[in-house]
Amino acid sequence: MVQSSEAVRQPKRALLLGNRVRQFIKRGGRLRYEPHKDPSNGKTVWVVMGVFPDETEEPVFTSSSGEHKHFRSADAMIQYHSQMCPDEDVLIVPMPTSH
Questions:
Q1: Contact assessment for residue 44 and residue 37, using Cβ atoms and an 8 Å cutoff
Q2: Which of 33, 87, 89, 99 could form a disulfide with 46 if both were Cys (CB 3.0 to 4.6 A apart)?
Q3: pTM summary value
Q4: pLDDT tens digit sequence for 28-61
């Protein structure tokens, strides 16, 4: 019997938690930051996305609250990225789109 469900073809992954990011990077993953507007105050936050070696992406979740890991300032994002990826010397910070 042939099943065509996307869920069957795609292996299920565990949530990418913040306390596992270093291991994720050591296994070939990388980080990307996605700008979003915070609905509560309209300010920009950058959500941390994990990019797997097969180029699929999933958000990083905080292990304490289960929320998407995000930063309110580019400085905080740069500091985090420097700690998680000490061998990288370039970080592209995306600008939010203006509507």
A1: yes
A2: 33
A3: 0.80
A4: 999 999 999 888 898 999 999 999 999 999 999 9
